[in-house]
Amino acid sequence: MSSARFAFALAGGKLCSALCRVIARNRGSNLPGAVALKLDKDFLKNIKGIDPEKTIFITGTNGKSTANNMVVHAFTTDGRSVCSNLEGANMKTGAATALLKNTTLRGRFKKDYLILEVDERSLQSITEDLKPGHLCVTNIQKDQVQRNGDPDYIYRKIKNVIAKADGLKLYVNNEDPRSKSLGEGGDTVSFGVAQNAHGFEPETAWEVTMPCPMCRDALSFAWYNLSGVGAFRCPACGFSSGGPADYVISEVDYANGTFRAEGSTYRLSYPAEFFLYDYALCLCLCLELGIEAKSLQKTFDTFENIGGRTETFAYAGKEIKYMRIKQENPETLQSALDTIAIDKSDKIFVLGPAVVDDMIPHYSNTFYIFDCDFDTLIKSGIERVVCFGDTIAIDTANRLRYAGIPDDDIEILNTDDDDKILSAIAACESDNVYLITWIKKYEKLKEHTA
Fold first, then answer.
1. Which of 71, 121, 195, 326 is deepest in the core (most CB within 10 A)?
2. Which of 280, 302, 324 is at the close of a domain?
3. Which residue in 207, 206, 210, 170 sits closest to 190, CA to CA?
4. Tell me: the pLDDT tens digits for 276-305?
């Protein structure tokens, strides 16, 4: 009965995938897998020929999509056949869809490697059906509080998966305390990034830290590469980032777009701090699994990220640079602010936090803006700030007032109207504009200028 059910689910999923290619391409990364799992809840378990030693899961809060796509590009550049969910459909239905496309009509896996980006909340349910031999954890940070609660909730879920797994090799971020602690005492390889020109040091006695994942006391950071990611130590129990990671990116040259690692020089096509850890994870994993430096150099020369963090469009003689963030994620917002601050010329800063409507209940708040430090951005030269949005524009403006921006330099648009937002941008003197909002609003504004 179970084999018949699986065959029916396989056929149904493949038929749905074919139909999606014709009539509903925007649903093709999840719907076929949802159909297959509906017809057979054990669909993933029943696929034959998946080798755990060639199964790699990449999870964490930030960076997993870029890291996954980079790793897949590295493996295919090296001539290895790979099945992956490059569209970013990282829950169980997305994994099922990816496998549907790479499984024969008899239910046998057709590729050598299975490399999946896995949502951190979905990791437990997916690993009940698919057994990875390799698990990469980018970082564990605050994100989607209405769904995830606090980061320690996600930390415990990932830790539980690791505790139950047999023969699992971990790849952890040496400078992210939660990720680093997951590998304590196990079969673990660490990756990291040396302090570099875009890093920063704690500035005041009021610097916000985080609890030690081992003893819950306050961690002390010597320096940061990203918010909450850097050289750390717990004064109470001694847990720390320690010496260099097993694989370290160093000698980062942002101007020329290069870095050094393991005695070789590599191209840095995306010269921003948050991408460095994706490069580090990719390099660490690939060298561990036998991909040589020469092949990796070709990988980094040719890698193109899908939907990069920075995109541009022109309007009213101005270049508008959109800085993509994950809504409700202070670390990605902080990274965007730090990237903007590298530009020391006068600029317009346009900020529009939006209502989160990707799940019920819909809501909006500004808590993650208060988690960020705007000082470096302000010192870099801000001509004017435009705060927009029909729910929290005034709250957003207040946060910037608290950061020290004069009232006369802040324009409040208590609206989501595209014409009014673009008109306000056009009226500003500088032609150097940085925009932070969520992806749906950016796409509407860009379409409005076409």
1. 71
2. 302
3. 170
4. 999 999 999 999 999 999 999 999 999 988
pTM recorded for the entire structure: 0.88
Residue 61's CATH number: 3.40.1190.10
Handedness of CA 84, 86, 90, 93 (dihedral sign): negative
Query: Are residue 314 and residue 298 in the same domain, yes or no?
Result: no
Same domain, 280 and 372: no
- The residues, ordered by sequence, that sit 6+ positions from 305 with a Cβ below 8 Å of its Cβ are 66, 69, 70, 270
Residue 202 domain-assigned?
no
Q: Which long-range contacts (CB under 8 A, 24 or more apart) does 220-224 make?
A: 223/195, 223/199, 224/199, 224/200
Report the range of poorest mean pLDDT among 27-36, 58-67, 154-163: 27-36
Q: Could you tell me which residues are beta bridge partners of residue 321?
A: 312, 434
Summarize pLDDT for 372-417 with one digit per residue, the tens: 888 889 999 999 999 999 888 999 999 999 999 999 999 999 999 9
Contact 329, 141 (CB under 8 A): yes
Domain for residue 159, yes or no?
yes
The encoded tokens of residue 53 equal 């030693």
Task: Give the domain range for residue 334.
Answer: 310-449
Cα separation, 282 vs 56, in Å, equals 12
CA angle centred on 310, ends 325 and 397, rounded to 5°: 50
Asked if residue 9 belongs to a domain, the reply is no
- Amino acid identity at 234: C
Q: What is the DSSP letter of 53?
A: G
